[in-house]
Specification:
The protein has 15 helices and 16 strands. With about 425 residues, it is an alpha+beta fold. The protein starts with a strand and ends with a strand.
């Protein structure tokens, strides 16, 4: 039998929208600021952790195995091991899943897990032609050879390569993530108005949540070296309207497309961390219980339609636990694109999709919109790819606090054609 795995606590930074220049914090900085406040309020010491596991997709060159760097900066000491995972958009969810597996198997009792990303600091690189030219220049043994190498230099060698754009593209099918959103929008006939309406709803829901202070218990303020500080997700546009969204031009298919910057998730920096513990540790240290992770599931789909991954992962998870959509009190489905979320809703409700793609006799049924991302999602607050999965689980656990025993499900699509899902039960007495 596997051991139970509990969410003891969690925190995240505000999600800060990238503004065409490197942001004020590195990915490690963000994770440390989220983790410092989180660990400071625990009854155990940082050295008592069994492990640190973080997701990160675009770690900086000087942040290799960023989980180890963060752990040491948080004071775990050299004896606490750490490792970093990368599953594209689900890296933060994978970190939590890895921690769940280690605790449920009895290999650990207390783990700090989550994800971090500074997308605004994604490296800008030389192209391959420049790299080859530089290699030839450095191999030159005398002035004559160096002059010959200089003569071969072309201004095109200076054309930069944006690693962020490469990372948001699938090399197998040759499509950007936005182009895959156009494909699923076309497949399910999801028009521009529907996508913009969903985007507007996301901003409105997040704005209401901020105004009501709903997110204050999950966000820790972050401070720049110049004294400037951030306390809220800053990508939300409470004053946006359908008319304003309609003025934006399609980005990924300029002639016939419907996916715009306004109905897509934002390029963002942020971190989210959770403390996970075994039942033994919870009882021994008298730790609070925010929630319990029951299980997780993963699925593969056509990379060209990667946005449908949540449907397949959710179907696996619900089927394994003999649950239906009505059994889930709240869904957190990452809003990579409005079109992608709406396509998942259509697929959930489709008898043909259930039979032909999921091998189910009947469709799962569409998610009640009131229970889907009730405080908004990535269209409004951003999608720092390494951190989002952890944010979904943290927010889900926090949101369900008033419903002891209620079930929640966090799910997201994954670049490369995958989906991940995690089942969480609201906290309470053991």
């Amino acid at each position: 039998m596997s051991a139970r795995v509990f969410i003891v606590d969690g925190s995240r930074t505000p999600f800060l929208k990238a503004r065409n220049e490197p942001g004020p914090f590195s990915a490690a900085d963000l994770a440390v600021m989220a983790g410092r406040a989180l660990l400071a309020r625990q009854s155990f010491r940082a050295e008592d952790l069994d492990e640190v596991i973080l997701g990160c997709v675009i770690a900086a060159p000087d942040e290799a195995n960023i989980a180890r760097i963060v752990g040491l900066r948080l004071g775990t000491g050299p004896a606490v091991p750490a490792f970093t995972v990368q599953r594209n958009c689900a890296s933060g969810l994978q970190a939590i899943a890895s921690a769940f597996d280690r605790i449920s198997s009895g290999r650990a009792h207390l783990i700090l897990a989550g994800g971090t990303e500074a997308m605004s600091r994604a490296p800008i690189q030389w192209n391959i032609a420049m790299s080859r030219w530089l290699a030839r220049f450095l191999r030159a043994k005398n002035v004559e050879q160096k002059l010959k190498s200089l003569a071969d230099f072309r201004l095109s060698h200076l054309k930069p390569v944006f690693s962020l754009l490469l990372g948001l593209s699938d090399p197998v099918v040759g499509l950007s993530m936005g182009q895959t959103a156009e494909i699923v929008a076309h497949r399910f006939a999801i028009g521009r108005v529907a996508q913009d309406s969903f985007a507007l709803q996301s901003h409105q829901r997040l704005a209401r949540a901020q105004e009501a202070g709903v997110l204050q218990n999950e966000i820790e303020a972050v401070y720049e070296s110049n004294g400037k500080f951030h306390t809220e997700d800053d990508g939300v546009r409470p004053d946006t309207t359908l008319e304003k969204l309609a003025q934006l031009k399609p980005v990924f298919d300029r002639h016939y497309g419907t996916v715009t910057s306004g109905n897509s998730s934002q390029i963002t920096d942020g971190a989210a961390l959770l403390v996970l513990a075994s039942e033994t540790m919870v009882k021994r240290e008298r730790l609070p219980v925010l929630g319990e992770i029951l299980d997780h599931a993963w699925a593969g789909v056509d990379p060209a339609q990667m946005g449908l991954g949540p449907v397949h992962a959710t179907a696996k998870l619900l089927t394994a636990h003999k649950l239906g959509m009505d059994d889930i009190a709240q869904f957190e489905l990452n809003e990579a694109f409005s079109a992608q979320v709406l396509a998942c809703q259509a697929a959930f409700a489709s008898a043909d999709y259930a039979r032909e793609e999921l091998a189910l006799d009947a469709p799962l049924g569409a998610i009640d919109p009131a229970r889907l991302n009730p405080q908004g999602g990535a269209v409004a607050l951003g999608h720092p790819v390494g951190a989002t999965g952890a944010r979904l689980v943290l927010h889900l656990a926090r949101s369900l606090q008033t419903q002891p025993g209620a079930l929640g499900l966090a799910t997201l699509c994954i670049g490369g054609g995958q989906g991940g899902a995690m089942l969480v039960r609201a906290g309470g007495q053991l």
